[in-house]
Amino acid sequence: MATRVKTLFKAAKARLRGVRRNCAGCRGGSLVCDGSAWAALDRPSLDEPLWPARRSAREWSSTPDILRRLSGAILQTQPLRIVETGTFEGLGTTALGLAAPHEAAVMTFDLDDPEASAPRRANLDALRQARPDLAVDLTLGDTRETLAGRAEALAGWAFWYQDSAHDIDGIAAEWAVLASLAGPGALVVFD
Asked: Are 85 and 57 in contact (CB under 8 A)?
């Protein structure tokens, strides 16, 4: 199974390289192929919020450019079930949640990192206060174990921001769980 997933990722990576040079055949239907949609993701959307500041010395948190693109992608696709792996301080979660449609659900997963705990809690509490209509759910633990345990809640996800494991084995393990749970036209953003 692991070899098959690695092969699929290599094939997808090759296709994406082709998309950047020349559309791979979606005829502009994806955000990757649609140059105008991709460019729009880098512009401030609506009344751009002041993103929470990074608090960690590790500098792992999403930059304002990434936050702007994440919120732009959510505004363009309007997913009702959003998944994030790699919460860290919750900056990406905040961008996803502030842009989410009314009554959407944001399910975010991360390791229980003591350094990130206080800023993550503060940022998620601020998001919940700003968006009381939004379901924000944090699951702590290794995603190779926690994602499968939340399969029912994850079923039909429409947007996944993958920002946890930054190696092929970790991404493949997350994909092995989430692939079968994706809703039609689901979008994945890899950091």
From this structure: no
Closest CA to 83 of 44, 109, 116: 109
| Nearest in space to 164 (alpha carbons), one of 62, 94, 78, 56 | 62
Task: Supply the pTM of this predicted model.
Answer: 0.76
What is d(CA 13, CA 11) in angstroms, rounded to the nearest whole number?
A: 5
* Contact assessment for residue 10 and residue 1, using Cβ atoms and an 8 Å cutoff: no
Q: How far apart (Å, rounded) are the C-alpha atoms in residues 111 and 117?
A: 10
> 162 near 191, Cβ under 8 Å?
yes
3-state secondary structure of 185: strand
pLDDT per residue as tens digits for the range 48-61: 565 666 665 556 66
The token pair at 175 is 């994909």
In angstroms, the CA 156 to CA 189 distance is 16
User: How many Å apart are CA 134 and CA 130, to the nearest integer?
Assistant: 9
Which phi and psi (to 5°) does residue 48 adopt? -60, 125
pLDDT in tens, 33-82: 555 555 556 655 545 565 666 665 556 666 777 788 888 889 888 999 99
Taking Cα atoms as reference points, which of 103, 91, 6 lies closest to residue 49?
91
